[in-house]
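Sample 1 of the test manifest.
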Amino acid sequence: MAAEPHTTGAGAAGPNHARRFGAIWVIASLIATPLVIVLVGPILPPGNGSEQASGHVTDNTVLLAMATPVLLLVVIYLIYATIYFRQPRGAALEGPPIRGDSRVQTTWIVITSVLVLALAAYGTVRLEEDGAGSGAGANPLVVPSGPKLPVQVIAQQWTFTYRYPTYGGVETPHLELPVNQMIELHVTSLDVIHSFWAYQLGVKADANPHVDNVVFVKPTRLQTFEVRCAELCGIWHGEMFDHGHVVSASAFNIWIHQQEAAFAPATKVLPPYSKTYLPEPTRRGE
Amino acid sequence: MSTTTAAPPTPSPTRQPLWQRLLGFNLLTAVLLGVGGYYLGWFIGHQINGGKSFEYQSASDENDVALLLAYVFGVIGFLIGLGFANYPLSRLLGRPASLREKEHEGIGRYFGLCTDHKVVGIQYLVGIGVFFFIGGLNAMLIRTELLHPTPTVVGPNQYLSLVGMHGTMMMGMMTSGIMGPFANYFVPIMIGARRMALPRIEALTFWLLMAAGFILTSTIIFGGFPTGWTGYEPLNDQAVMGMDSYIIFFALVGISMALLGLNMMVTIITMRAPGLSWGRLPIFVWSVFATSILMVLAAPMLIATLSMAALDRTISTSFFIPGGGGSSYLFQNLFWFFGHPEVYVLALPGFGIVLELLPVFTRKPLWGYKLAVSGMLGVTLLSFFVWQHHLFVSGINADLRPFYMLSTEIISIPTGFIFLCFIGTMWRARTTFTVPMLFCMAWAFNFLLGGISGVFLSDTPSDTDTHGSFFVMAHFHYTIMGGLIFTFFAAIYYWIPKMTGLRFNERLAKAHFWLMFVAFNSTFLPLFVLGMKGMPRRVSEYAPNLQGLNVWVSISAFVLGFSMLIFLFNTVYSLIFVRRPAESNPWRSKSIEWQIPTPVPVNNFEQIPVFDSDPYDYGTPPSIGGVEPAPAGG
């Protein structure tokens, strides 16, 4: 590219477009980016239902703040070019024969590379801090320290059930979690692929049959949250929807012991608690 | 300078009587043999599986072996009927084989195996246009259902079939949206060749795709399929016979893609005219070349994966069935190893169209030619290293997520090259805002939004919120519809005057553009919000508080659909009824396809041209262009 002839800056006639466009873009970015952070940032999902959810709000805000100048660059350029770089009506003029500019190209490559590497580094750091509520497989690299409450999420067509191994392996049809307690969710499936999505908690983990998918979450306030399936699992995929509750530690204690008592007959006949359950292959026509 | 002087073969003026022509190898014979093959396969399948006698299918008669064999035999019969077996059989029997098929017939050449790349290009344009329309109608029905938060118009089963058919139809057929019509038509001309390297293979890719599209549509008869276009296991294994239509459809599309890519690569490598070095190749040809690499390397993976799925469904193997020792991860892994290159198969030809058209309308050379080429090749290479970003929350190889995050975000660097070339070419230009140019500018806006939303999805923590939601759906509609379909229309408006010698009604074309652009954004921008608010993909039931936005999206989608009707009306009105002849070079392009007569002669060039520059010799001082006409008479 360097060998190619180039002309930069203002031509013989007309305004210095580079300077003018650059100024418009910089000013627009300086105005818009803080506005986006202040106005849009707080309403970004998924809210502050858990440490992980609050982390996502920060991540989404950072990404949006970085995206704003990029978006403005192209949009303002499209408008600028439409206004200033047009063929006069009825004319058939040729443009300047510029075939490239090694300085511009190098600058562009350096800036985009730095941006991209920074983004990837930031994402990696945020991911490895607390797992980011993202399903991390059977042996997560990052395990939060301190006591954790294990809860198993069992997905099947078309419902979620939950087992509490530290409470006799009781299986309940609804999810209740104690507040301010690190939860260790083990997500698995009995049939097809599902995905456990607790929206307000910022948790999503696929439920694969014969797979234990671990995800950590620490709810930070009392709330009702939505639980959905986020992976197409058959005709009632859209109906695979429930509400879970984050309650105080004492309320949780009362609830879980009620469940233990209520489901005691069922717990006896359930298969013993296991990381995964390997059902017989179900095939059509059998 | 060398000029080739092969004389064009003389057309045979004698025409056979009608009944002989109907009995020959043509579409009618193909359909008859296709139906015959179908019932033969159905019969054999029932003999193999359960020993049932030949009977019509009903909902309770689930026989995957029979249906798969029926499809395979049907396709083979269809191809034999078209005449694809003639050449290899003649060769085997030592008889002289016909090297050219139907190149000199009239309208009939459009309805059969034709080895003229220009005929295949038109066939592709019309053929995939029909299936694009069917896929679009599916989308209209989906949006009708989503007017209400509970199932109303269609049941959940039909809804999933619509979603699956829409996605699969668009991903499968529109893979060739630009590669089929425009690459087949213009690549040989742009490189100064008289034909494709493998003209029979070229025709085969088209007819395979038509058979595939018909098979996918037939899934309605067999109960549809519930998996969406991804066909994830074990849901795939659980599904009714309609799933077999999906498997055969995508396998045929895979074969068509691999062959199309191979043919393009061979043609571009071996058949460039004298003087057309790699550094002078039109940028569109470069994008076709890059896409071809992806097609050849990725599509076989799809065929293999679907073969395994078919075996799981028919003879109870357990590639993907955990209870039998298989893994549902395996399917996801294999599918996306094809699936992610596939989305760049859709995007790259769009890059080529935009950068090819910009110099014409800005009256400037392409800015940063080498940067654009390296951008395309960079995307090609990197797209094989990102597939597990579709599986960030699945728990598969979780420790590798930082790598896939990095590789995915790195791919935005070469994509950024394309944007820089776009910006550079428009810099201080003399732009005329014709309809093709407007579509190219819309590409820049749409693909930018697609790319920016892609950054949210590639960031693993942020992806936790957006994965599997409408946000993803909005993202890939911005990249695929905003990237491919907008450039598809740019190419149509740009090249139809060359392909048909006729011009579109400009006012209707502008109305189409503006309505499509506004309705497109009005449809898909709110979907980002819906996804962020927690609406999953592929559901016909959603939270009632999201109804308002969904109604807005549905109405916008109907307007978007209406804009397609404007295009359709314009096509019928301008190209069939009004038929105003186009100027020979209405855009004052310096590219070679505009320097040869319209309609393009069967052999394209009287003499093979000799190139002494790239086709972007715009700007001062004025010159004739990159093509030096060969001396007359040869």
